[in-house]
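Troubleshooting: if your tokenizer reports a length mismatch, compare your output against this known-good record of 106 residues.
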Amino acid sequence: MPDLTLTEADNGRPVAVHVGDAITIRLPENASTGYRWSAASVDRAHVRVDPPRIERTSEAVGSAGTSVWTVRATQPGTTRLELRKARSWEQSAIERFTIDITVAER
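Known-good structure output:
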């Protein structure tokens, strides 16, 4: 199975991968507003989540970009990954991105 790329449109989608596969998640973000994506919950027994990187759409100050997450399947099993978009000083998220991941042996 080839590696997967997911976007906002895939929120809530079940995902099936094999050990060793990678899932790339691309979510819009404008850090100048204070809202950033962070991992709210992940079971590290089945997947490894790399730190996100930001791809800027413009060099202009305050411009929007894309938060790019890489999730690697490490062990067979089922897990849920939840990312939340929030300001670090606030309790509530304005957006959530959740996927249920099933990891199988290759």
